[in-house]
């Protein structure tokens, strides 16, 4: 079984995916973490975020490993001499600001999608295009939205920042991600603005049971 949870930036995808995956006793998979880790490595190497061949060559030499646990995804660079966890560094403002440029490149989307499709179900997959491009066969699909202000307020609780600036950055990233971020025709759209986390998880679980 595959359940997909897509949505705009900071709409609650990973928290909801984690809650749903825990309730179903299956892992969840964060596709955004692969885009983020690729962006981090490119920024560190000084590789242009719009140079697909250079990015693919960089990633070809980088033994990235995604750990898709129900409680939270982690990503590692398994270089034999100096293994390193990249998860925290992949969630900085610098990565936030660069990731959409890399994610626009079809070759990089294929690189991510090949890794996702190689995973063995069951799992909950979260991102932007899980229910449309990557797992169109998923049993149940959801798309989370929330107002930019609500999302910014939630994000500044996790990371220090000015609400206004965070809101503008979220709006800018939504625009840059527009091409790949839309609900599948058979997705249930959930506005999480006035729901708490437990409420969103319950709504998704109800939708999953309906399709069991
Ligand atoms: N419905 C909700 N109500 C309140 N806080 C939420 C809700 N959904 C998510 N959050 C919080 O908002 C922040 C962003 O959620 P996250 O799951 O990281 O979103 P995304 O994966 O879409 O970026 C987290 O701190 C999370 O705990
Ligand atoms: N399926 C996906 C997942 C992420 N992404 C890209 O990766 C970025 C980071 O995704 P994320 O899900 O970790 O970001 P947040 O919504 O959690 O802030 C997005 O802004 C997109 O540019 C994508 O294009 N397609």
Automatic annotation (TrEMBL):
<dbReference type="InterPro" id="IPR027417">
    <property type="entry name" value="P-loop_NTPase"/>
</dbReference>
<comment type="similarity">
    <text>Belongs to the cytidylate kinase family. Type 1 subfamily.</text>
</comment>
<keyword id="KW-0418">Kinase</keyword>
<keyword id="KW-0067">ATP-binding</keyword>
<dbReference type="InterPro" id="IPR003136">
    <property type="entry name" value="Cytidylate_kin"/>
</dbReference>
<feature type="domain" description="Cytidylate kinase">
    <location>
        <begin position="3"/>
        <end position="209"/>
    </location>
</feature>
<feature type="binding site">
    <location>
        <begin position="7"/>
        <end position="15"/>
    </location>
    <ligand>
        <name>ATP</name>
    </ligand>
</feature>
<dbReference type="Pfam" id="PF02224">
    <property type="entry name" value="Cytidylate_kin"/>
</dbReference>
<dbReference type="InterPro" id="IPR011994">
    <property type="entry name" value="Cytidylate_kinase_dom"/>
</dbReference>
<dbReference type="GO" id="GO:0036431">
    <property type="term" value="F:dCMP kinase activity"/>
</dbReference>
<dbReference type="GO" id="GO:0036430">
    <property type="term" value="F:CMP kinase activity"/>
</dbReference>
<dbReference type="GO" id="GO:0006220">
    <property type="term" value="P:pyrimidine nucleotide metabolic process"/>
</dbReference>
<dbReference type="GO" id="GO:0005524">
    <property type="term" value="F:ATP binding"/>
</dbReference>
<keyword id="KW-0808">Transferase</keyword>
<keyword id="KW-0963">Cytoplasm</keyword>
<protein>
    <recommendedName>
        <fullName>Cytidylate kinase</fullName>
        <ecNumber>2.7.4.25</ecNumber>
    </recommendedName>
</protein>
<keyword id="KW-0547">Nucleotide-binding</keyword>
<dbReference type="GO" id="GO:0005737">
    <property type="term" value="C:cytoplasm"/>
</dbReference>
């Amino acid at each position: 079984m595959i359940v997909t949870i897509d949505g705009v930036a900071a709409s609650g995808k990973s928290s909801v995916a984690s809650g749903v995956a825990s309730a179903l006793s299956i892992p969840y998979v964060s596709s955004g973490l692969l885009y983020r880790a690729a962006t981090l490595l490119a920024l560190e190497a000084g590789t242009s975020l719009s140079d697909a061949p250079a990015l693919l060559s960089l990633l070809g030499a980088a033994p990235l490993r995604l750990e898709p646990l129900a409680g939270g995804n982690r990503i590692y660079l398994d270089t034999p001499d100096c293994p390193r966890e990249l998860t925290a560094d992949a969630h900085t403002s610098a990565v936030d600001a660069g990731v959409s440029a890399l994610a626009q490149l079809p070759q990089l989307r294929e690189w991510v999608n090949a890794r996702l499709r190689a995973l063995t179900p069951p799992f909950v997959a979260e991102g932007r295009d899980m229910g449309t491009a990557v797992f169109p066969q998923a049993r149940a699909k959801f798309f989370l939205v929330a107002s930019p202000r609500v999302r910014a307020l939630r994000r500044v609780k996790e990371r220090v920042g000015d609400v206004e600036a965070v809101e503008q950055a979220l709006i800018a990233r939504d625009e840059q991600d527009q091409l790949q971020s839309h609900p599948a025709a058979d997705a249930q759209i959930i506005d999480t603005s006035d729901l708490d986390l437990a409420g969103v998880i319950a709504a998704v679980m109800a939708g999953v049971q309906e399709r069991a």
